[in-house]
């Protein structure tokens, strides 16, 4: 066991945003969180990171370093720093000129895991959305985390880049053994990439292997009666909610 969450509840302004959510994650898992808008998915990620007060228990079975890529980030495209300089800020390095060779090598290694090592000297403001997302995934890898949290990692990215990003996350999981938890609205992605799925709509709806728990009845309960549903022999793909 890597992470165990028991009876987790979060209140905001006196009202429960999520209530009595329980699940466990094994080391090396890819876990998807699904649910309708306003279900509390991002709140759950913030609770796991310890960023907000919560009720219940979040128990780590080993010391874990967490990397996080948010769903949306406001970014000033006149930002003058290069990708390499942006990474150095994470180390607390005040001056680029005093960075060590080891730090530069670690930055290049993180960027190589996402296939954008050649962008290290490029200004961040000049990057496309797809490039920027790969840089931020590399940024989350910088420091060698045990767990990566992604809040809709392909928001605002075109379809071709979207599939490339999910393939990249699976490669990172397989090659580096990093546990991944991601929020997704795309059920085909959940079937294709996730070992387990957490279904929430403020309260816990289901938890388990997608092929076992994402039944037509469960999806209608989670999203409402008008959800489109297509079942394939291998559970590779379902219609988006």
What does this structure look like?
Helices cover 33% and strands 24% of the residues. Strand 6 (147-151), helix 5 and strand 7 (179-183) form a beta-alpha-beta unit. The protein is built from 8 helices and 9 strands. The model is unreliable at 230-241 (pLDDT under 50). A 6-stranded mixed sheet has the order 5-6-7-3-8-9, sandwiched between helices. The chain has a 3-stranded antiparallel sheet with strand order 2-1-4, with helices on one face. The chain is α/β, with parallel strands linked by helices. The protein has helices at 41-48, 83-90, 101-113, 129-141, 159-176, 187-193, 210-213, 216-223; strands at 3-12, 15-25, 30-34, 55-60, 66-69, 147-151, 179-183, 196-201, 203-208. The protein folds into 2 domains: 1-64 and 147-157 and 178-241, P-loop containing nucleotide triphosphate hydrolases (Rossmann fold); 73-145, no CATH class.
